[in-house]
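Chapter summary example.
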Amino acid sequence: MATKATIYKALLNIANMDTNYYNEHNLTLALHPSETELRLMARLVAFILNANEDLVFCKGIDQDDEPDLWEKALDGDIELWIDLGQPPDFLIFIKNQFF
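The structure predicted for these 99 residues follows.
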């Protein structure tokens, strides 16, 4: 039988005076069996630093084509894509070629 995810709950009160964002978030986070608690905390910090009403956690480590967090506009366009960890080699190559 496969190991199940560990569930963590977090209650955040965010008061960002720079962006005038003040809100409370009641989050439920799943720690994948292959994920470390440090990476879980990195996802939580990324959420705090980019807090927004439309920012949501994705499947992340389970799906290659989804980030850890993203923010989508009402029309479905992706406004913000947050991926944690070491980028794949081909992305590093592309960045070095074009930027």
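To summarize the output: The longest strand covers residues 6-16.
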